[in-house]
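#help-structures
NK: newbie question, is this the right format to request a structure? protein is SRPBCC family protein
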Amino acid sequence: MAQRSIPAGQGQDFSLLTGHVQNVGGLERWVSGIAGGLLVVAGLRRGGLGGTALALGGAALAGRGVGGYCPVTARLGAKPAERRVAEKLGWRTAAAVSRSVTIAKPVEEVYRFFRDFRNLPGFMEHVERIDVRDDTHSHWVVRAPFGPPVEWDALVTEDRPNESISWRSEEGADVRNTGTVEFLKAPGERGTEVRATIAYEPPAGQLGRALAKLWGEEPGKQAHDDLRRLKQLLETGEIPTPVLRAADRSSGTPDSA
């Protein structure tokens, strides 16, 4: 019976056995497998506690090569939806997130506050300054996780009063980005649901994305925290700081956050 040769890297798909989708490329799998095997051999020859640790690390690396799946890459890398966003926009990679918060204020009031971009640095922690040039153009200066601040010119691409605002960065941006903020009537007359959907191209690609996540600067956390501060600002007129929270607790005043 004739046998069909299988090209390198196209053998058994172990992701079917593990239940994980492969996220390690062919060349990287070969390197991981070979390096892992060498570490296992070196660990076994060395013996002792150090040798055991070396062998276990090698086994994990070899498993990465055999299975084509890396949990660290899965946690820190781009999700399938983000890869589709990057492909659609022509970016190298994309970090995207959608978050929402319910604010006990009328839609008209929340929209009006947000539409004046000069108000945004008041609750967006990483935004240092926004220079509003006209109804559709503005210049943003944003603190980056590493290095100096990044800047870009933004264009409002769609503005539907009391419904939504969409924007994108213009040519020459330090960080390309796009997004939409929706203002919806919350069920049960509870005010306004603000839903923010944001995507940007990490400056250093996947490495920059991974470092930002490790330092707690990834977009999901940023969006969550910013929307929470927006809620506090509109409902109470202030954003509690750690000092104010400590003072409230010592005086017996309930935390309004």
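mod (FA): yep, format's fine, and the tokens are attached above. The chain is about 40% helix and 20% strand.
NK: thank you!
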